[in-house]
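Pasting as-is:
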Amino acid sequence: MSEQTEEMSFLGHLEVLRWTLVRSSLSILAFGMIAFVMKDFIFNSILLAPKDPSFFTYRFLCSVSKIFGTDGLCIDEIPFIVQSRTMAGQFSAHIWTSIAFGFVMAFPYIIWEVWKFIKPALYENEKKNARSFIIITSFLFFLGILFGYYVITPLSINFLGSYRVADEVRNNFDLSSYTGLLKASCLSAGFIFELPIIIYFLTKMGLVTPEFLKTYRKYALVLVLVLAAVITPPDIISQVIVAIPMIILYEVSIKISKFIVKKQEKEAEKALAKK
């Protein structure tokens, strides 16, 4: 009888998970349809904006450069054009870009659905933190998206768009390649900024401790530098700019892990005192 109950419980969880995925997919589709309709704004004002030398990041770097009495960081031209070389190229880019925007905009709702799915396994005091969890997780994700858009993307576009192996070789990039770079930069940064949330849950499950994070800090630093080198152009300045927030996130994660462990120890002491 107990085996049948456990089996039904497992199947029930699968059913809940299925509907969680269905509702999350529908939310992405709904926001994706909105993005599909807003084609001109999304492509002209958002996606193609980092290709313009007057983009905010380039103007900011130029202003910083002039403070030090040089124009070394000022950008007058990004010498490449974006083209579509297949019949369905532009339509395909429009579809996949709309889906990517749909996922970004639906992210808070998806996190809420995830919270509802894991809620039965949580303690009563943890269930009360639903709003804080959704707000903080969404904030970190959108902060990462902005970092990817305003920092990683312009650095990558400027470097790769200006790089030439010979004067006779011109840079004419396919639309899918350009949008792929932008989406990868933004989404990867968005997920990387979720590190404190991941460490929070790993600590709660007992898989990670503050001592573990401190012990492997130097290895984490090397990993951060490697990751920064992968998602940015191969120049030191870009890699340092990207690596700094990652290091800060790692240090914040250590503090979070320490806080969780201390809280668990206090709760264990209270439980023993009651006995």
